[in-house]
Amino acid sequence: MADQTLSKRAVLTGSGAYLPAQILTNEDMAKRVDTSDEWIVERTGIRQRHFAAPHETAAYMGAEAGRQAMEKAGLAPESLGAIIVATSTPDQAFPATAVRIQALLGATKAFGFDLAAACSGFIYGLSVADAMLRAGQVKSVLVIGTEVFSRLLNFEDRTTCVLFGDGAGAVLLEARDVAQDGPGLLSTHLYADGSLGDILYVDCGTDENRKPGYLVMHGREVFRHAVNLLAGAVNDALAENNLTAADIDLLVPHQANKRIIDGVGKKLGLPPERVVVTVHKHANTSAASIPLALADAIQEGRAAPGRLLLLEALGGGLTWGSALLRL
Ligand code: COA
Known about the structure:
It is a single chain. This protein has 10 helices and 13 strands. It is an alpha/beta fold. The strands form 4 sheets. It has a 5-stranded mixed β-sheet with strand order 1-7-6-4-5, with helices on both faces. A 4-stranded mixed β-sheet has the order 8-13-12-11, with helices on both faces. β4, α4 and β5 form a beta-alpha-beta unit. α3 crosses α4. The longest helix has 22 residues. The two termini are about 20 Å apart. Coenzyme A binds next to α2, α6, α7 and β12.
């Protein structure tokens, strides 16, 4: 007989997505820098990206995605407990983008804060929300990834400016008492290696020598680390839950590069139909990429109730992590 003991879990009750209307194809990029559709598709799988208009800030887009997630869950804004925003492109140093979003949503009882873990920010956000929900601090948390990376791009550097896009994705997590085989976050694993900080960074802040600047990336170095570190995070998630890759219904990876996504999928032995890919239409939207991919898979019916999802990401820091989630 199945174990009927109930335990408190963070259950996904709604998701949302926002993409700016403006789309730039690879051909559009080739008008701005010395590149080609062929090069970009072959090296990255990217075919187009969305770029934000001036009013489409991280807070604006994050609020749109967050509102959708709450509407799908049927949760009134004034009932929301907390907002966690993963972003590297906040509207301001402070107030936090999460607090701007709180005002836009009318989530008057929610507290909120931003979390900086670059492209891994959404996984980090899930992990913090999971702990808050299981500890009973709040009953609901909106976790949002929202980015306007187009504003960080150096259009003199063709090796980076073709890789990124803008957008926002959100999930609403609510504390529920569920059976062992019920829905919710089963685990999160977070990692960091600050000694690799200089292979992917954006200068900004109060250091006199590091005035606000553009995104800098040593792509080959990042690539070299990515597949192995991600495979490690994924294997830790499986081992902790006594699962194998065969148990995973859907891999929802950070959408940086099709070759990295394929590399992890291959290491796990997952067929392409069990791997969510949106990088061709969104490019790399950093902390927004996983919730955008998730919302896409939910809309298509691929991520349906009962399915077991494995989420993974790696980004500047380096930071990386994984999350195992049953819908
Ligand atoms: N268009 C055309 N040619 C380009 C180009 C572009 N946009 N960008 C670089 N090139 C050229 C280079 O100048 C170089 O030419 P050369 O051999 O004449 O010097 C050649 O393409 C190869 O460059 P290289 O940087 O070695 O390419 P690569 O195969 O490593 O691919 C990346 C570059 C960025 C696509 C790849 O390194 C990558 O995906 N890295 C991981 C990046 C990532 O996902 N980061 C995000 C993590 S969150």
